[in-house]
């Protein structure tokens, strides 16, 4: 905090508070939120920070930066807990324990459509539907999907395939799909299968089995023995699955959590069971904000993780945590069913706790080792480039296109702990000659750093350019035009043999370094460069596919937004339109024979009489 900012008078602030429950926020002079906390009595909790009791170094450092505080009063302590979790997620306070977002874990997705599709999903939850998970691995998801197809016969095909089927596919023939694409199942029956699949994925197999038993009896009562036999087989399959693996003699729906800590580094290990099936383990490495209290870290993890994921009926912890009963009440409230948090267990559950604890310790040790290796590579890069200090931020740019089409520039960011994916950026390049990599690089660098200069944004310590002397020269020119200084610019070019490890590093002044494959510094450069290349390729392919699937119709004379929408709706997408003949296209409202011929020719790269005349 700067010297002209008066110190925050915490005791005076406390006098204006009452003993209602609520949430408090500690804010620095630059308006950055330092800490968010909840309290059953705001006056008492906030006052505890400013009494004479000795504080830990972490708390003392935090309090020295506080310029002001804000509070929000809630009706109950449970509401305060929920609000605290929301604020921690949105504000990302520096001194809170924070669960890192990781979108790489796989889910089972059941889409929200007339005929829902069930599939594996990874990444942002942009597709409308229900997401079940996350699962420990792709293998666990595939095992679950295999069961779902056998038990409930839901479709897995993409919409473009589903809309254009004229006969049942192989999945129907082997009994894994009810073929809604060709009308072999009614909408009501399919919807019922979807509902039952949701019960199963929610871990409510006992309820599902009871329901199937009643339905089987009802079918027998109305002499529909074929339906009764199908329900009997389905019920037996589910009960057989429940009996295959169980905990304490019944189908289990529980999570086991253990935490391991070394200094302020933490690992929370999650071992999950659903319907008696072991879904495997997942290791999380939350940001602790300097806390060394394992119980505090675990409590923060439980609150934040289950604010995003549906909690199971039972959560077993390797130690007691603060506000356990309050968190239990909040999870019960948000989950619409009773949730129990247990800390002292026996028998088989105690074995699972021990397993989770040992795996947490191993995962943390492995993560610490990888961090040590990352630091060693960073130190080697500092020495190789002659930097005054370790690079706190490294950025790398790469250009991707196909013969000049859909040019995309990528920018990836690494800090001392590795990739910072939330700060990756892509730039769609326009206004240049197709295939001009030099102009593309100049435009990308200009766009990234112009905004940083105008808004006084963050600058990298090292800027890597995937390319040779030409690309580096363009990057240098763009930086000079903007007056950017203090950034170490390094080109990463393929060596004469064009093999990994033979890369040349191009430095200002024309110096060329050949660190060699054994160099930790080059290994770090390769890691960042490869990530930039992957990110650029992914963006380019997406842009190219979008251009090819949406703009080609619009480029045809006589095709406006309305006709384009009619065509795509009629044929279920561009794939169906491309598969249609001229006569079929001409049947679409508003499309005559001449226009249908132009559409067909354009989509198949053919010439028409009109184009020849031109």
UniProtKB/TrEMBL annotation:
The keyword Cytoplasm applies. Residues 206-241 form the UVR domain. The keyword 4Fe-4S does not apply. CDD domains: GIY-YIG_UvrC_Cho. Residues 19-97 form the GIY-YIG domain. InterPro entries: GIY-YIG_endonuc, GIY-YIG_endonuc_sf, GIY-YIG_UvrC_Cho, Hlx-hairpin-Hlx_DNA-bd_motif, RuvA_2-like, UVR_dom, UVR_dom_sf, UvrABC_protein_C. It comes from the Bacteria. Keywords: Cytoplasm, DNA damage, DNA excision, DNA repair, Excision nuclease, SOS response. It is found in: Cytoplasm. SMART domains: GIYc (SM00465), HhH1 (SM00278). Residues 256-479 form the UvrC family homology region profile domain. Interacts with UvrB in an incision complex. PANTHER family: UVRABC SYSTEM PROTEIN C, UVRC/OXIDOREDUCTASE. The UvrABC repair system catalyzes the recognition and processing of DNA lesions. UvrC both incises the 5' and 3' sides of the lesion. The N-terminal half is responsible for the 3' incision and the C-terminal half is responsible for the 5' incision. HAMAP family: UvrC (MF_00203). Belongs to the UvrC family. This is UvrABC system protein C. The gene is uvrC.
């Amino acid at each position: 905090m700067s010297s002209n900012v008066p110190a925050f008078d915490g005791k005076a602030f406390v006098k204006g508070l009452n003993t209602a429950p609520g949430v408090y926020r500690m804010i620095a002079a630059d308006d950055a939120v330092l800490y968010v906390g909840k309290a059953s009595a705001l006056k008492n909790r906030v006052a505890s920070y400013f009494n004479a009791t000795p504080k830990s170094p972490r708390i003392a450092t935090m309090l020295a930066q506080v310029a002001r505080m804000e509070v929000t009063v809630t009706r109950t302590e449970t509401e305060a807990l929920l609000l605290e979790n929301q604020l921690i997620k949105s504000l990302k306070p520096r001194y809170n324990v924070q669960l890192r977002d990781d979108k790489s874990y796989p889910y089972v997705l059941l889409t929200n459509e007339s005929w829902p599709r069930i599939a594996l999903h990874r990444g942002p939850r942009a597709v409308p539907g229900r997401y079940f998970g996350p699962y420990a691995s792709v293998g666990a998801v595939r095992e679950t999907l295999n069961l779902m197809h056998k038990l409930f016969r839901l479709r897995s095909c993409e919409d473009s395939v589903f809309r254009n089927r004229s006969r049942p596919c192989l999945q129907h023939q082997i009994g894994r799909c009810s073929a809604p694409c060709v009308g072999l199942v009614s909408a009501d029956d399919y919807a019922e299968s979807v509902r039952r699949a949701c019960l199963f994925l929610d871990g409510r197999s006992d309820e599902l089995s009871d329901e199937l038993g009643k339905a089987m009896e009802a079918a027998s009562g109305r002499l529909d023995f074929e339906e009764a036999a199908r329900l009997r087989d389905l019920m037996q399959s589910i009960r057989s699955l429940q009996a295959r693996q169980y905990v304490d003699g019944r189908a289990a729906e529980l999570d086991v959590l253990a935490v391991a800590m070394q200094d302020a580094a933490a690992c929370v290990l999650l071992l999950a069971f659903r319907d008696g099936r072991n879904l495997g383990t997942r290791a999380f490495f939350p940001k602790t904000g300097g806390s060394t209290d394992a119980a505090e870290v675990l409590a923060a993890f439980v609150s934040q993780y289950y604010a995003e994921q549906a909690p199971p009926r039972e959560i077993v912890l390797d130690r007691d945590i603060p506000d356990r009963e309050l968190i239990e009440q909040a999870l019960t409230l948000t989950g619409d069913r009773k949730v129990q948090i247990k800390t002292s267990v026996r028998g088989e559950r105690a074995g699972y706790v021990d397993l989770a604890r040992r795996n947490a310790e191993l995962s943390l040790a492995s993560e610490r080792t990888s961090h040590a290796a990352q630091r060693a590579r960073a130190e080697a890069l500092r020495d190789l480039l002659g930097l005054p200090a370790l690079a706190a931020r490294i950025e790398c740019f790469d250009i991707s296109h196909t013969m000049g089409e859909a040019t995309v520039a990528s920018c990836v960011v690494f800090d001392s702990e590795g990739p910072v994916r939330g700060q990756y950026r892509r730039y769609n390049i326009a206004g240049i000659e197709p295939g001009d990599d030099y102009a593309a690089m100049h435009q990308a660098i200009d766009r990234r750093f112009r905004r940083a200069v105008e808004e006084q944004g963050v600058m990298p310590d090292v800027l890597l350019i995937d390319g040779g002397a030409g690309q580096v020269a363009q990057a240098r020119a763009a930086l000079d035009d903007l007056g950017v200084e203090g950034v170490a610019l390094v080109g990463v070019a393929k060596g004469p043999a064009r093999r990994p490890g033979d890369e040349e590093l191009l430095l200002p002044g024309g110096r060329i370094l050949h660190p060699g494959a054994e160099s930790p510094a080059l290994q770090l450069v390769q890691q960042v460069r490869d990530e930039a290349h992957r990110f650029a390729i992914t963006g380019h392919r997406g842009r190219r596919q979008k251009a090819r699937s949406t703009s080609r119709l619009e480029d045809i004379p006589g095709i406006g937004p309305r006709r384009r929408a009619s065509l795509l709706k009629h044929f279920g997408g561009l794939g169906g339109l491309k598969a249609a003949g001229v006569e079929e296209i001409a049947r679409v409202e508003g499309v005559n024979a001449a226009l249908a011929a132009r559409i067909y020719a354009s989509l198949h790269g053919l010439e028409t009489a009109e184009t020849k005349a031109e």
